[in-house]
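Section 3.1: Structural characterization of target chains.
Under the original work plan, the team committed to producing a structural model for every single-chain target entering the pipeline before any wet-lab resources were allocated. The record below documents one such target. The sequence was received from the expression subgroup and is listed exactly as submitted; it comprises 150 residues.
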Amino acid sequence: MYKRQADNQLTTQGVELGRMLFYDKQLSVDNSISCASCHKQANAFSDPNALSKGVQSQLGKRNSMSIVNLVFQDSIFFWDGKAKNIEHQVLFPIEDALEMNSNINNVVAKLNTSTLYHSKFFSAFNTTIVSSKLIFKAIAEFERTIISTN
């Protein structure tokens, strides 16, 4: 069954913004990696390595699991089930010291300097103000479109 947050309906603009954020290296502390750096499209949006590499080539504790078909997942995300939904799971890699090693407030500040992001957030959410909640929603919208079958 298709799962979604009641307050985060899929829209073309939201998915487009989420894809842009998913591939944006500004989400990491040193602008060196993006979500896509570990969730490689060529490898079913997963990492073929046993341990994924974060900023400064630090090895993580686990492999980046595939994000294909997350739309059908109920409430357990990550190998240890620490996130309650797709929106919630977005924060963890951004702030994990071995992954992107950033701070969501710093990411918000970086993205708020971009007129392109202001335009994209307005198209998707009717506001030019970038917020952590809207970043999570947009990336989750994109991730919900990554499916293995129709």
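The mean pLDDT is 89.
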